[in-house]
Amino acid sequence: MKIIQYLTELPENKEDDPGTKKSRTCKTKPKNQDGQLFNVESHSDKQLRHFKFLSVSFMSQLLSSQSFVKKIVEYEETEELQELEQRLLEEVLHYINTVASSVEGNMDKPTAKFWRVLLSKCYDMLDKVNALLPTETFIPVIGGLMMNQLPSVRRKAMDLLNNKVQQRTKWQKSQILQLLELVPELIAIVKCRKKEEEEEQAINRQTALFSLKLLCKGFGTENPATFVPVLKTAIDLISSEKEEKNVMGSALLCIAEVTCTLKAQAIPQLPRLMPALLKTLKSKKELVSNEIYLLSAVTALLKVAETLPHFLSPYLLECLLQVVHLEKIVAEFGPSSQISVRVASLKTILATRLAPRILLPAVTKCYSEVVHTRKNCLGPLMNILKEHIAGMEKEHLISHQPELTAFFMKVLDFRTEHAEDDLEEIGKIEAYIIDCLISMVMKLSEASFRPLFFKLFDWSKTEATLKDRLLTFHRIADCIADKLKGLFTLFAGHLVKPFAETLNQVNISKTDEAFFDSDNNTEKSCLLLQFTMDCLHKLFLFDTQKFLSKERAETLMQPLVDQLENVLGGDEKFQERVTAHLIPCIAQFSVAMADDSLWKPLNYQILLKTRHSSPKVRFAALLALIEVAQKLKENYLVLLPESIPFLAELMEDECEEVEQQCQKTIQQLEVILGEPLQSYF
């Protein structure tokens, strides 16, 4: 200890040596006087540094030398020795402080490296002192250091405690009781908010919260009562308006650990904890600017929800509102980031750990709150409901089906309520809603699905003013057809006539009337055509039960073929619609008919379009013709005699593109039918 005190009194470097300062006794003696350990004036700067380094190295080696450690082990641990060990630790920590400030002061000077090496040597010495202490002594010594006047010593004491708790796995009962006695002292540090050294205080309070978290993790399960005050203190902290953000982050992580450990004993604290926790999640600006704080808040809510899901119902609506909003914030961190993973876990807990009678009313209320103000939160909300439905027991689903149906009838009006908004954005949100509905449909029996489907069907054609509902319904039909495949034909009989009518009503070659009464009529009409054709295409594709009877085929034939001349939306839209949606639909239609008495009129109607005044329509008709031939293969031979005169006309078409396409069509027909056709022209 005396060596350390002496080193502390030496100046930082030679220039700083105040020959006149009376406080430095060792330097105020006359030069010739003996008994002076190290004369600063008669040695160089380098020698002064060397002396300090050697002194610290000597102590470090001595404290770990076998002979010295043996003496300590043989010596009985008395109060006197314990006091000496505590004082030695204090002295070492003081000296570390002195060296650390020199490191900062000399950062830009040539001696910077020396000070860093000396500091590391001092830490080495601290470890050696620490290693000498038996655990029974270590804990009271640390307790004593935590009461020290200097904030830095208090912090280092907590660091030593944290390292010890993290490194050791086995503790005796008496040692655990000793450790738990430190809890009130740590709580006192957390509560301490002196104005001076504010930054220092904040770091110390964070360290104390971390110590409490570690102690709770290690010993809280066996001794829960000790940690109830810890939870109360942390809740006080996050409830305070003026608290420093980093301290709050540590408090939130402490809450997460303590709630997890206390389980049922934390329930009485929920009425204070949940509002405070949800309030921190509300201040989005602060969360976004500080990722660690955001992560801490999410972790706390996750752990509370994980530990006590059945006690969340009074706060569930607010939880849902915060979680669906959070998903949008964390999206920018990327899906594999820790924060995104935790928000996803939180959504899963809300979706899977709560009973439908609790979650469904909360989801309905949450929808009403966000539908007009924060539309982009609807996707995450629907995903929570989708996951909930996926995990529902069959009897629960049956008993809650009326409630779910009522909810879907309400949310499916989303498109109608936002009729003038951006179509793409509305489409994205509607996709989440339909996806969620489909997750329910897939779990229903035929007997329960049929009434639901016809309810939706009636809903879509109720009022003329709500034509946007048709868009939604045709999209639902398309999605259900995709999922139910061949089974959908059991319910789709009623759709044939309305779909045929829609195809005619949205065909500008047949009517001048706008189908939708809104500015974006054209875009909406194009979308409606796309959903209708895609749904029909799937019906024809999965039709194994002779769904397409002669009567139904005749109902659909003309409206479908007439779409070849429907140039709604301009050239680009027309071309995209014809190649991606209409032609695959017509070709599959020919396969589903499976009847040559119906192929003939279909082929003839397509051929008639090759005489249309617009070259674009003639070109589209040729594309349709070859696609049908590819599907029918050698069956197309019976239709060939009828097609040749039309193709011969097109060989001399005034439009070069049509003429080239005609030659290409003839070549493709030769390949399909395996016969040369050039002799016919």
From TrEMBL:
Its main location: nucleus. GO terms for molecular function: snoRNA binding. It is found in: Nucleus, Nucleolus. It comes from the Eukaryota. Residues 648-675 form a coiled coil. Residues 11-20 have a biased composition (Basic and acidic residues). GO terms for cellular component: 90S preribosome; small-subunit processome; t-UTP complex. GO terms for biological process: maturation of SSU-rRNA from tricistronic rRNA transcript (SSU-rRNA, 5.8S rRNA, LSU-rRNA); positive regulation of transcription by RNA polymerase I. Residues 394-547 form the BP28 C-terminal domain. Gene3D superfamilies: Leucine-rich Repeat Variant. The keyword Hydrolase does not apply. Residues 21-30 have a biased composition (Basic residues). Residues 10-36 are annotated as: Disordered. Keywords: Coiled coil, Nucleus, Ribonucleoprotein, Ribosome biogenesis, rRNA processing. Belongs to the HEATR1/UTP10 family. Involved in nucleolar processing of pre-18S ribosomal RNA. This is HEAT repeat-containing protein 1. The gene is Heatr1.
